[in-house]
Amino acid sequence: MPVTSPDLRWLTDPTVFAVNRLDAHSDHLCCRTAEEAAAGRSSLRQSLDGEWRFAYSPNPAARPADFWREDADLSGFGTIRVPGHIELQGYGQLQYINTMYPWDGLRALRPPQIDWDNAPVGSYALDFTLDEGLRGQRVCISFQGVEQALYLWCNGQFVGYAEDSFTPSDFELTDCLRDGVNRLCVEVHKRCSASWIEDQDFFRFSGIFRPVFLYAKPKVHLTDLWLEAGLEPDNTTGTLTPRLKLEGETADARVTLRLTDSEGCALYDGPVTGDTLELPGIQPWSHATPTLYRAELTLYDADGTVQEVVPYRIGFRRFEMVNGIMCLNGERIVFNGVNRHEWNAEKGRAIDPADMYAAMEVFRRNNINAVRTCHYPDQSLWYDLCDENGIYMIDETNLESHGSWQKLGAVEPSWNVPGSLPEWKDCVVDRARSMFERDKNHAAVLIWSCGNESYAGEDILAMSRFFHEHDPGRLVHYEGVFHNRAFDAISDMESRMYAKPREIREYLESRPAKPFLLCEYMHDMGNSLGGMESYIRLAEEFPQYQGGFIWDYMDQALWHTDALGRRVLGYGGDFGERPTDYSFSGNGIVFADGTEKPAMQEVRYWYASPAQRAAQDAANAAGARQAAQRLAADRQSRERRPAPDLQVVRGDVNLGVLGDGFRVLFSIPEGGPVSLVSGGSEWLYRAPRPALWRAPTENDLGNGFARRSAVWQAADALPECAGQTVLEAGPRRVRVAYRFTFAAVPGAEAILTYTVDAAGTMTVEADYHGAPGLPELPCFGVRMLLPDPVGSTAWTGLSGETYPDRYKGGIFGRHRETPAVPDYLVPQECGLHMGTYSLTLEKRATSGRTAARLTLDAAEAPFAFSALPCTPRELESALHPCELPATGRTVLTVLGAMRGVGGIDSWGADVEEAYRLDASARYHTAFVIRLQGN
Predict the structure, then answer these.
(1) Taking residues 641-662, what's their average pLDDT?
(2) Contact 842/789 with Cβ under 8 angstroms?
(3) Of 166, 379, 625, 695, which residue is the least packed, with the fewest Cβ within 10 Å?
(4) pLDDT (tens digit per residue) in 104-124
(5) Catalytic site includes residue 506
(6) Is 396 an annotated catalytic residue?
(7) DSSP at 492
C-alpha cells in the first residue's frame, strides 16, 4: 500500500530513501507514432521546466509546512527557474568544499545526523494543465535530478519522497489529477542522511537542477527495455536479446522490432519473442568506429492498435577481461580519459545541451577517448553523445563519503559510512540499481563504478555484486579498495589515484592478476600537467597498464560580482562561505568558460596515436633545423654587410655605445644597460637583472617547493651588482660584464655580459655559478622590464605555453600572441615558450599599426621566454586575475633553465627529478638582440 503521509524523520533515516517512488527504468523515449519517433519528440511527454513559485527557508522549522494544502496562501512566494540551483538564484549560501563536510567545526555531527538549525528548505509550487496528448491515460512525473531530498504533493495529496540527487525519481500522479488546473508542490531539503554519502569535491548546491517532465502511459506501456547487444568472437556477428517489461493491459499485447543501419537497411524486422537474435555483417562499435544501429520497438495492444513507438540507438561490442587485460572486441583497450563534472560558470551543474555538445567537441579535437562521470551519473544526453562519438565511459554511482574516513590526509575510518553498516546497505545498492537501470542500453558504458573515495566494506561489496550479477557483460570499478584490501574483490581492476610512475611500474612488474587503471591522474590545477609522458610510456611498455583519466575536465568557478563591482570568476571562499577549500575547485583542462587551457595541446599530443606523435615530432625537428639554418644565414649576412664604426662615449657614470640607428647606455650605478634605443624607440625601463624566481604555481605551493626555495625570491628581488667590467671598448665591438651576488644565497653568483658590435647586434650572455647546500633553483635567465606595453609577440619555435616537462605538444612554426596572463583562477607562473629560435616584439601605435619592432635570436641554442604584463612578484601577490596591476609595461624574461611544472598531484608530489634545477650547478643562456634591421 502506498504511504499517504510524509515524515520529517525520514531525513535522518538511511533506511528510508524512496517512498512511493517508481522502480528505476531505462532512459528510453516513448512516442505515440513512428513519425514522432523519427523526429525524436513525443506527445506523451510534457515538460514542466520554467518558472515555478518558490519560498526559501533556512531550516525545516521555518518552512511553510502547509504550503502543499490546496487552500494554502502562496502570495508571499517568489519565483525560481527550474531547472536551476537555489543558491544561484539569490537564495541561501554558496559553498565549495572538497573532502571535509560542510558543517565541520560548526556543529558536532555523526552519520546520519543533520543540523536542524542549518538545513535549508526550498518550497516549490507549480500550477499546470495536462497537454492533450497525456489526457485520459495514466500520468507520471519524472524528476531527473533534485538535490538532496524531495517530498512531493499533487493537489493536496502526498505523492512520495526520494533521495539520490543524480538519478531520476519518478512517481505516479494518476489518482491525484483532475480536469483543468493541477498543482504540484515539492519540498526540497538540502540536508538529509544522504548528505553524508554525497560528499563530492564540488560546490554544495540544492534544488531541482535537472529537467522535470510528465509522461503518459497508454493502456499498455513499455516500462523498461534492455536491448542487450553483444558481439561474437568473429567481430562480425552481432547478438541482440531484447528484454522488455510491459505494464497495463498486457494480455495479447505484442511488440515488434525493426533494426536498421545508418543507410536505413533492415537487419531485422519482426516480432520480439524474447529469443536472442543473431545478426551477421555487424560493424563493431568502438572509438575508431562508433557505429550505431537504430532499433524501433512498436507496442501494439490486443486489438492491434499502436500504443507506443520507442526508438533507441545501440552498438554491438564485446568488452571483457582476457588474461588480466581489458579488451574491447578482442583488442587491448587504453583509456585516454578525463574526469568530468557537469559544470557551467553561470548555472553550476544545471547544464543544458549546448554545454554537452561543446564538451564533446573538445573531446574530439583533443583525442580524448574516455570519460569518467565523476562522481555521479550525468544527464542522459551525455551518454547519447558518448555513444555517437565512441567515448568509453566509466559510469559512476552517486556515492562519496570522503570526509567520513580520511581526515587531514590520514586514513581514519572509525565512523566511515556506508562501510559495513547494515542500515546503509539498501540505500547504496539502490543508487547502483538506479544508475544501472537507466544507463544499461548505452554502448559507451564499459565499466560500472561503485562510487568514489568512500573507503570499502560490505555495503560497497554488495553494490559490486549487484553489478556483476545483473550485467556480466561489463566490468566493475572501485578505487577505494586500495585503502582496504580486505575488500579487493569489489573491483575488477587495480584502480588508483595519482600514483607515481615508479609505483605503477612496481605493481606491473609484480605479475599482477588485475590490470592497472588510473581513475584520476595529472591533477591539472593551475599551470600543471607536466610529466604526462611518463604515464603514456608505461602503456607502451606494459600491456596491463591501460591508461587513465585526467583530473579533471573543467574548472569549477562561478561568475559573480565582487566587492568592487567587477564581474569575475569566483572560487571557494569568494562567496563568504566557511569552511571552504578555496581554489582547489579549479583543476580543469578547460577554464570555467569552456576555453581550453594552454596545457591542452599536451593532452592532444599524448592522447594521439604513436604514429601521429611521431609525425609531429618529425615535422617539429625539420622545422627546427630550418630555423637554425635561417638564423645562421642571417648572421653571416649581417657580418658581411658594411657598417660604420661604433661611437663609444665614456661618461663619469655611463658608458654610451652609439651605432647606425641604435644606442645602448650602460650604467655603473644601475648595474646594467638602462637604455636601448632601436628604430627610434626605447626598449628598456630598468637595467636587466638575473631571473632566479618564478611566481609559484599551485603545484609549487602544494609540494612545498615555494617554501623550501623561498630564498630565491629574495635573491631575485634584491640582487647586488658587485662590479662592472668593461672587457672591450673598440670601434667594432664593446663588451661589458656585470657580476651579481645575492645576500640570501651566499656563494652563488650570476654574470650578465653584453656585447655590442658594429654590425648592429647586442649579444646577451647570462651565466649562473652555483654553490653547494643551496635549495633547488626555480629558473635562471635574464629579466628585462620594458617601458611600454608590447602589442604583439611573434616567435619561431613551439606553439603555446610550454615547459621542460610539458612541451611535446607544441607545434613548431611561427606563432603570435598578445602578452597576457592566462585565465588561471589564481595568477601564477605562466606564459613560457620553450625551444625559441627567434622572437619579435612589436609596439603598436594608437592607430593599431606597428610602431616599432625588436627581434631577439638564439645565439647558441634555442631559449625559452615569456612576455607578460606582470612581474613574478605581482603575479604571486594576486589571488585573482582582476587583482593584477595594469602597469603599462611588459616583463620580458629570457631563460636558459626552468623548473618543470609537475602534475602528478597538487598537494605533495614534486616535479620529476629530470626537471629540477640543482642550485650547485652552472647554467648558461645567450641570445642576440638585433639593434637595426628589425
Answers:
(1) 95
(2) no
(3) 625
(4) 999 999 999 999 999 999 999
(5) no
(6) no
(7) S
Q: Is the N-terminal amide bond of 787 cis, ω within 30° of 0? A: no
DSSP summary character for residue 590? B
CA-nearest of 690, 635, 628 to 861 is 628
Which of 494, 447, 433 is CA-nearest to residue 337?
447
**How far does the chain reach from its first CA to its final CA, in angstroms?**
87
C-alpha cell read off for 62: 521555518
**How many separate helices (H) and strands (E) can be counted in the chain?**
13, 56
850 pLDDT band, cuts 50/70/90, is confident
Across 773-787, average pLDDT: 98
Mean pLDDT of 120-146: 98
Q: 26, 437 in Cβ contact below 8 A?
A: yes
Q: Count of CB atoms within 10 A of residue 313's CB? A: 15
**Nearest Cα to 454, choosing from 423, 490, 430?**
490
pLDDT of residue 932: 76
Please give the single-letter amino acid code of residue 546: Q
Confidence label for 568 from pLDDT (cuts 50, 70 and 90): very high
| CA 686 to each of CA 238, 676, 754: distance values in angstroms, whole numbers, following the listed order | 73, 10, 15
Alpha helices, H only, 660-723: 698-702, 705-708, 711-717
Cβ-proximal residues to 621 (8 Å cutoff; 6+ apart), any chain = none
The yes-or-no verdict on residue 934 having pLDDT over 70 is no
Catalytic residue of the set 163, 296, 437, 453? 453
Query: Are 255 and 244 contacting, i.e. CB atoms less than 8 angstroms apart?
Result: yes
Q: What are phi and psi of 667, to 5 degrees?
A: -110, 135
Q: 355-372, pLDDT tens digit by residue? A: 999 999 999 999 999 999
Instruction: With beta carbons less than 8 A apart as the criterion, state whether 121 and 223 touch.
Output: no
The C-alpha cell at 852 is 616599432
For 717-740, write each residue's pLDDT tens digit. Answer: 999 999 999 999 999 999 999 999
pLDDT at position 464 over 50: yes
Helices (H), ranges, 336-473 = 353-365, 380-389, 422-439, 458-470
Residues 906, 698 contacting (CB under 8 angstroms)? yes
Other CB atoms within a 10 A radius of the CB of residue 609 amount to 11
| Three-state DSSP state, 638 | helix
Which residues does residue 17 pair with via DSSP β-bridges, in sequence order? none
The dihedrals phi and psi of 521, each to the nearest 5 degrees, come to -160, 170
Q: CA 512, CA 510: separation in Å to the nearest integer?
A: 6
Length of the chain: 934
Distance, CA of 433 to CA of 429 (rounded, Å) = 6
* The amino acid at 65: A
Cβ-based neighbours of 883, under 8 Å, separated by 6 or more = 827, 877
Entry pTM: 0.97
| Grid cell at residue 505 | 611500474
- Residue 679 CB-density burial (10 A; 0-12 exposed, 13-18 middle, 19+ buried): middle
Point out the catalytic residue in the list 520, 749, 876, 912.
520
pLDDT at 845: 76
Please give the distance of CA 69 from its chain centroid, rounded to a whole number. 44
Q: Calculate mean pLDDT across residues 639-663.
A: 95
Q: How confident is the model at residue 138 (pLDDT cuts 50, 70, 90)?
A: very high
Beta bridge mates, 172 = 140
Residue type, 97: I
What is the helix (H) or strand (E) element at residue 154, kind and residue range? strand 149-154
Single-letter amino acid, residue 141: I
The pLDDT mean for the chain works out to 97
Q: Report H helices in 440-517.
A: 458-470, 501-508
SS3 (DSSP) at 824? coil
Let me know: does 248 contact 221? Beta carbons within 8 Å: yes
Say how far apart CA 116 and CA 99 lie, in whole Å: 22
For residue 933, what pLDDT band results from cuts at 50, 70 and 90?
low
Task: Quote the CA–CA distance of 146 and 121 in Å, as a whole number.
Answer: 12
Q: What is the rounded CA–CA span in Å between residue 310 and residue 450?
A: 30
